[in-house]
TrEMBL record, chain A:
InterPro entries registered for this protein in UniProt: DUF4395 (IPR025508)
Pfam families reported in the protein's UniProt record: DUF4395 (PF14340)
Domain (DUF4395) ranges: 12-141
Protein name, per record: DUF4395 domain-containing protein
UniProt KW tRNA processing keyword: no
Source organism per UniProt: Geodermatophilus africanus
Keywords noted in UniProt: Membrane, Transmembrane, Transmembrane helix
Transmembrane residue ranges: 19-39, 45-68, 89-109, 115-137
UniProtKB/TrEMBL annotation, chain B:
Record's protein name: Thioredoxin
Organism the protein comes from: Geodermatophilus africanus
PROSITE patterns: THIOREDOXIN_2
UniProt xrefs under Gene3D superfamilies: Glutaredoxin
Pfam families found in the cross-reference section: Thioredoxin
Location of the Thioredoxin domain: 23-136
CDD domains registered for this protein in UniProt: TRX_family (cd02947)
Coiled coil: none
């Protein structure tokens, strides 16, 4: 029999990552409009905290818990932390490239990378689709086989 | 640039909505290969009226909801079997079956015929219809235990 899915670890309120995705979209849209490498770098730092330290420390997640969640009803649905946390890592890669592009005087690279990060964040915010998660298996299976 | 990003987002969202969860059929040869690969993973279609094989990864939000939905259907349709495969530890099968996203589901009848496959969270009505078409309601067949 194939083995079961990995055990679920930490869980988060599903509305948290969704809220964070909207905020991320707004920040990246402003960065794209103003061509601000600094703003993309700030967003990269936000992604880095979420990806490396965990969503409970992610700045937008904290904002959600402190300011937004108390105004909403009780938690109705929780989801495993791993998918949205992985998405933060994918966002981090794009934001780092975007910030580097803008700050190193290559605005086209900056704009394309920031634009792609915006697409991913906006998709996540609007439809709940996690683009990074969708691509995970595609990337994983392209790598040489490891014995199971 | 912002306009381009918005247009791309809308396009991706439309594509995803159109394709997500849609059950696609397979030709006979492809179906037989698929069944053989799945049987290699330990799938035994002969033990249930309908066997749903789900490929999942740890970084997959809709996988859990899909699993829950299938388990819910199992409660009323004991002839339905659901098997979860961790895609990452079966990458050879993933490549052979061309699984690109998770969850990807394969539907097999008791004879081992591939009825179809779908990627993304299955559409509730389509899934229910498929289950109802292939799995008799309890009572229709007395004394069966799965």
């Amino acid at each position: 029999m194939p083995d079961a899915h990995p055990p679920t670890r930490r869980e988060v309120d599903v509305r948290g990552p969704r809220f964070a995705a909207w905020l991320t979209s707004a920040v990246l849209a402003v960065a794209l409009l103003t061509g601000s490498g600094v703003l993309v770098a700030v967003q990269a730092a936000v992604f880095a905290v979420g990806a490396l330290a965990g969503l409970r420390y992610a700045p937008y997640g904290v904002l959600f818990r402190v300011l937004v969640a108390p105004r909403l009803g009780p938690v109705r649905e929780r989801e495993p932390e791993a998918p949205p946390r992985f998405a933060q890592l994918v966002g981090l890669v794009f934001a780092v490239v975007g910030a580097a592009g803008y700050l190193a005087g290559a605005p086209l690279i900056g704009a394309v990378a920031t634009g792609l990060a915006l697409v991913a964040a906006l998709l996540n915010a609007a439809t709940g689709l996690c683009l990074g998660c969708e691509l995970y298996l595609t990337v994983r299976r392209a790598r040489p086989a490891r014995t199971a | 640039m912002l306009g381009g990003a918005l247009a791309l987002t809308a396009l991706a969202a439309w594509w995803q909505r159109r394709r997500d969860g849609a059950v696609r059929g397979a030709d006979d040869a492809r179906g037989r290969t698929t069944t053989a690969v799945l049987e290699g993973l330990g799938v035994r279609p002969g033990e249930a009226d309908l066997t749903v094989v789900q490929f999942s990864t740890a970084f997959c939000g809709p996988c859990r909801a899909t699993r829950a939905r299938l388990q819910q259907l199992q409660a009323t349709r004991p002839g339905l079997a659901h098997l979860d495969v961790d895609a990452e530890s079966h990458l050879d099968a993933v490549r052979e079956l061309d699984v690109r996203r998770t969850p990807t589901l394969f539907y097999l009848d008791r004879a081992g015929t591939l009825l179809g496959r779908s990627s993304g969270a299955p559409r509730p009505d389509e899934l229910t219809a498929l289950v109802e078409a292939h799995v008799p309601a309890p009572g229709a067949r007395e004394g069966r235990d799965v």
